[in-house]
Write a structure and sequence with these properties.
This protein has helices at about 5-15, 20-40, 45-65, 70-80, 80-90, 90-100, 120-135, 150-155, 165-170, 210-220, 250-260, and strands at about 140-145, 155-160, 180-185, 190-195, 225-230, 235-240, 245. It has about 280 residues and is α+β, with helices and mostly antiparallel strands. The protein folds into two domains: about 5-100, no CATH class; about 120-275, DNA integrity scanning protein, DisA, N-terminal domain (YojJ-like (1). It has a seven-stranded mixed beta sheet, sandwiched between helices. Strand 3 and strand 4 (about 190-195) form a beta hairpin.
Length: about 280
């Protein structure tokens, strides 16, 4: 487009711009989009939201480059985006309406958190899991990594507790209210217990494996979390990651796994505890 035509197009657009009404319109949309990102940031839907954003940018680029077939396909997907978002973001939309109903849409939750050193977290978790294994007490512990699990946390009971072996063992004590659910660990603390996990639908899973193992495989298939399982029948320790189950974990292997998650061994490696204040900034 020649320079003169570009200037004319910009001038024409500005002449039609209603400074008060259009400015208010833009601000409202910007705030709503911001709150949508905040509400979904700690959930699996955040990854889907980023994918939709990439498709939207790709549609604009294909229009600019006059890629007719690609543009038609992407525009069709974007056109049905509202229906897709309603289906995919049902938990987030429910949370948003709950916030609006309580008048908390623009509030920010601040937590006074107490965190342990990485090595101490490893020691406490290892002790708890080994003790539960010896007593053949079933347990299901999900450790959040990059993919947020706030939608799963909302199904359980909030704890916001410091990680300790006695607390974990008490949560999974038989005949207690939170025994059958999963514990969610995030940023070096226990955020919730008694949580419900999505069950794996893989038919290849061994029949002798119970609901805990299927739940561990289910959550590991939809997130990058690591889930530790203690079998109630045999006391065998297992872990699920990336949709795969590894069984018969001994004490040394358990320690190595926990250290690989919580302890920073080299510069640039990922540490959970470095993310603990991401929601408070």
């Amino acid at each position: 487009m020649p320079y003169d035509e570009l200037v004319k197009a910009i001038t024409s657009g500005l002449s039609q711009f209603r400074w008060i009404a259009d400015s208010v319109d833009i601000i409202i949309i910007a705030v709503l989009l911001y709150r949508l990102i905040v509400l979904t940031k700690e959930t699996r839907a955040y990854q889907v939201l980023k994918g939709i954003g990439v498709l939207f940018l790709a549609a604009i680029l294909s229009d600019a480059l006059q890629l007719q077939t690609v543009s038609w396909m992407l525009n069709s997907i974007v056109a049905s985006g509202i229906i897709v978002m309603v289906v995919l973001f049902q938990p987030e939309l429910r949370r948003a309406f709950e916030h609006i109903g309580r008048g908390e849409l623009f509030t920010k939750n601040l937590f006074n958190e107490v965190h342990l050193e990485e090595a101490q977290i490893v020691a406490e978790l290892q002790q708890a899991i080994l003790n539960l294994s010896k007593r053949r007490v079933g347990a299901l512990i999900v450790i959040e990594l990059k993919t947020g699990l706030a939608d799963i946390v909302s199904t359980g009971t909030r704890i916001e507790g410091v990680i300790s072996a006695p607390l974990i063992e008490n949560i999974f004590e038989p005949n207690t209210p939170l025994h059958d659910g999963a514990v969610i660990i995030c940023d070096g603390r226990i955020v919730a217990a008694g949580c419900f996990l999505p069950l794996s639908e893989e038919f290849s899973v061994a029949r002798e494996l119970g609901t805990r193992h299927r739940a561990a495989l289910g959550v590991s298939g939809v997130s990058d979390s690591v889930t530790l399982i203690v079998s109630e029948e045999t006391g065998v320790i297992s872990f699920a990651r990336d949709g795969k189950l590894v069984r018969y974990i001994d004490q040394k292997a358990l320690k190595n796994l926990l250290e690989s998650i919580f302890v920073t061994r080299a510069e640039g490696s990922f540490s959970l505890l470095k993310r603990r204040n991401r929601n408070d900034k």
